[in-house]
Amino acid sequence: MLPANAEKRTIEILAAEKIIADISSGVYRSPAAALKELVSNAYDADATHVTITTDPPHCRTLTIADDGAGMTVENFIQVITHIGGSTKRLAGEYSPKFNRPLIGRIGIGLLAVAQLGSRFHVSSSKFGTGKKFVAEVNLEPFHRDDASLRTLGKMRGDGQVQIGAVTYVDDLPERSDVQYTVIMVPDAKKGLISEITSAIREVVGATEELSIRNGRVSTFLEIANAAAHSKRADLVLDGYYYMLWELGLLCPVNYIAHEPFFTHERSIEGIDQITIPSIEHFQVTVDGLEIFRPQRFPNTAAIAHNGPDPKIYSIEYDHMIADRRLRFSGYVYAQPPHIHPEELKGIHIRIRNVGIGRYDKSWMGYPFDEGLKFGQITGEIFILDGLEPALNIDRDSFRETDVHFQAMRAYIWSTLREHVFPDFKARSREYREETRAAGQDAADSDFREALLQLPSPLLEGLRKSKTASLSPMLAVNGRVEINQTWFSQFAQEHGFTREDEGRFLRLLTVLLSADLLEDLTEEELLPLLSAIAVAVR
Question: If DSSP codes are grouped into helix, strand and coil, which group holds residue 55?
Fold first, then answer.
């Protein structure tokens, strides 16, 4: 507390204009994350189609068009002049036409365009109005290098800070039976162009399996397959195709074939216990290519792997946490020998059908060491209610102090610790034991058949009875015998394992059955048996 009788001085706290510029143009982690926000806005507007063109491979101009409800010029001015003050959900939590759970709530979606370019055009029309508006948004003054040298000074009287300017023309004629919003970035940022054209990957020496410079693919499945068959998607996809692959992970679109799991080449245990959300009446295309969720399990290595079948562990949660409902569903998928590509390891959280950031390989900071099993699991969480207040401004990460986030993390951790990993390990042990037993049965059968080929009169009775026992611990026709008490002591003296015992007994049975030991004295037999014991270890 300040001394009551001391002279007090006050100075203003100022920020550089560049701070606001960085917030307005650097919110999103990648081009795909920025485009996701514009796709989400179209989804909220009840669009059925979003069409993105990037002018590949040069990527000098970007256009994002949708057939959603559109905006009046008044709507647009409200949005562009109140960044961070969304009123979208005042009318309800669902869209009016398709009853979609609304995604936007913070009111910074248009800033996604600023990350693609500091100057862009917007045109839009609402159904039945017969008119449209065209606007140019210019954020260039706040992106100049000298912005860091200028201070914002005092805010305007309404508490807002100017970050750019809008020039627009309204009441232009348009067909009354159309609705749309089109955003066009005429000069994409150089950093975006560098990423899309793979200049960065050329520097690090990555080998690209798919590159826009070598021609376009005909289906998104080609992109998904290239990633699924590789260790890392970003090593086989150039920047352009990696952007499309990541856009599929983040956007509210369907999986390829409407689900991420394929059982025609390998069974997946527990697949009938989960329900995968489906997206209806919504399609996203980029440069004519329809975008899908790219997850495909099991991958190539898992199909041919000599181990237990993959398994799905379902997730269901519905509780009131701090007087707010938290409800989500999802799955954990376990697949030996590993999850490929690397980008799909971990847990991916989706809120209202939109991916929040990339897969979290740490499983929200899971505190236990599970060894190699940690690289053999992946999962998705579909948030149905709650958690949204925990979202950071970039909609790409969470505030970990939020009670909903903490409750979800605790549930995921307990699911892994108490169910997934113990069961996964038990199934691996069981598979090894079954495989070993099956191998032992096959070896016993082969051994029996080999003995039957010996020209020994001892085996005549056995040849006549295919079901007769041929255990070396039992007599064959009353003559071939091994004293169990003696053998136990002999095996202990020679340090036999269980596998050593089996090999020794088989070899001894062959020698006895062929009448090769019957003329030996005990003094001659024991050294021979000791030599055999050394040989089989």
Answer: coil
Domain boundary among 148, 163, 197: 197
Q: Residues 301-357: pLDDT tens digits?
A: 888 888 899 999 999 999 999 999 999 999 999 999 999 999 999 999 999 899 999
Which of 180, 197, 214 corresponds to the end of one domain?
197
DSSP code per residue over 170-211: EEEE--TT--EEEEEESS--HHHHHHHTTHHHHHHTPPPSB-
Which domain CATH number covers 24? 3.30.565.10
Distance, C-alpha 175 to centroid of its chain? 43
- Average pLDDT over the chain, rounded to an integer: 81
Residue 96 counted as domain residue: yes
* Residue 502, domain extent: 465-536
* Residue 189 falls inside a structural domain: yes
Q: Please indicate whether residue 273 or residue 257 has the higher confidence score (pLDDT).
A: 273
> For residues 472 and 416, which has the higher predicted lDDT (pLDDT)?
416
Residue with token string 């795909």: 32
Q: Which two tokens stand for residue 229?
A: 């068959």
Bond preceding residue 422 cis, omega within 30 of 0: no
* Residue 114: pLDDT over 80: no
Which amino acid would we find at residue 74? E
Q: Within a domain: residue 307?
A: no
The DSSP secondary-structure symbol of 420 reads I
The string of pLDDT tens digits covering residues 170-185 is 999 999 999 999 999 9
Is the backbone peptide bond immediately before 455 cis, with ω within 30 degrees of 0? no
Q: What is the Cα Rg of the chain in Å?
A: 34
Q: pTM score, two decimals?
A: 0.78
How is residue 320 annotated by DSSP? E
Q: Give the residue, 480 or 255, on which the prediction is more confident.
A: 255
Residue 209: what are its φ and ψ, rounded to 5°?
-85, -35
- Beta strand 324-334 with 289-290 is unpaired
